Amino acid sequence: MMSSRVFMIWVWAVVVGIPAATGDGWFHGERVYEEAEEAALIYTNVTGVYSPKFHGNESKAVYSPLMVGLTLIPAAAATGAVCLDGTLPGYHLHRGFGSGANSWLIQLEGGGWCNSIRTCVYRKTTRRGSSRYMEKQLAFTGILSNRAEENPDFYNWNRVKVRYCDGASFLGDSENKAAQLQFRGQRIWVAAMQDLMSKGMRNAHQALLSGCSAGGLATILHCDEFSELFPRTTKVKCLSDAGLFLDSLDVAGVRTLRNMYSGVVSLQGVGKNLPRVCTNHLDPTLCFFPQHIIASVKTPLFILNAAYDSWQIQSSLAPPSADPHGLWNDCRKNNARCNPSQIQFLQGFRNRMLRTVRRFSMSKANGMFINSCFAHCQTERQDTWFADDSPVIRNKAIALAVGDWYFGRSAARAVDCAYPCDQTCHNLVFK
């Protein structure tokens, strides 16, 4: 057990900085928008720093998570629903049992975006752009766990992790023949849902669409589309984890994330697949930001987000491009090293996030858990989802808050006090 609740992400360079000799996540002068939460997952799973509740005499030394194999979707090729490099998309499915046999949880994988030919060409040489490089098995932990003591409400559901290999949050539909790039995220989404419907999801009594980061954004943008797959008798809801990306000014006064999203939307033909309720009056790039979408989503939606989202701090608020003198280097990697003016800037970001969800929170159907942590993606990590020392708001862990909301046991609109009051956070610290 790590009493400090701080998780050292020593594999950061491996996960984010792969393409660049500089190791800072930049590729020939362009930002590679990968996700820091994977580093956290690698470190957590390897070292076992979380404290699950074990069965009987089972010891921590022998604990191992459920490993689930990759299933490719052969029928996807006929509709052009392929990864960036033209390979088949896929997912990992673990069947439900008992009372959960007719309930389905779909988790959309995250993994950043690619916004130029150069970054997309690189991406297709990784698992983020090709099933050729995807892991053949994935650990199902957190919201995907099959143990009631780790995942109290969804452990016996049919649980699926849909792999992400398009680079536009499952929304693009275009191609670049010269670069041999297929931007077919929307088609992958449709093909995956059709395949799962044929495998029993059409008979679901309950369904939950969820996703982390870029997958959390996809969850928001596909939520109503997901709901329309089912008859009205099916209880359908959506959960976005770390998907509330804000259109914010960075420390240099530039909208870094908006500039990047503009490249994603235009390059990959995303605009035609964005909700018309937004694109009828706003530029498609702005409609890729969930702040312009969440209040109009008809399906019940739960937003889980860290108020000081570590990915947004690193890649949107204080990226190296906005900090040429490295004044934010220490703060960007470790919140304990932020000076008062930097904390004040980050408090402003939290305030904007709270203003963004104000109208959304007025609907009794929606749920919310915004904790004042320096984190990113908290559903698939066991230590943050449901463990002995998980983050809480008013003594309620994330898993219990989500379950209470989904099943209507109690209202679930929890907003944490401002940093540094929450001592239950599992803050990410980057090497």
Automatic annotation (TrEMBL):
Q: Which GO terms describe its biological process?
A: cell wall organization
> Which keywords are on file for this protein?
Cell wall, Cell wall biogenesis/degradation, Hydrolase, Secreted, Signal
Q: What is its main location?
A: secreted
User: Which EC numbers does the record give?
Assistant: 3.1.1.-
UniProt-annotated location(s): Secreted, Cell wall
The family database entries (Pfam families) matched by this protein are listed as: PAE
Alphabetized InterPro entries for the sequence: PAE/NOTUM
Q: Name one GO molecular function term.
A: pectin acetylesterase activity
List the signal peptide residues. Answer: 1-23
GO-annotated cellular components: plant-type cell wall
- Entry similarity comment: Belongs to the pectinacetylesterase family.
Q: What does this protein do?
A: Hydrolyzes acetyl esters in homogalacturonan regions of pectin. In type I primary cell wall, galacturonic acid residues of pectin can be acetylated at the O-2 and O-3 positions. Decreasing the degree of acetylation of pectin gels in vitro alters their physical properties.
Stated name of the protein: Pectin acetylesterase
The scientific name of the source species is Linum trigynum
Upper taxonomic classification of the species? Eukaryota, Viridiplantae, Streptophyta, Embryophyta, Tracheophyta
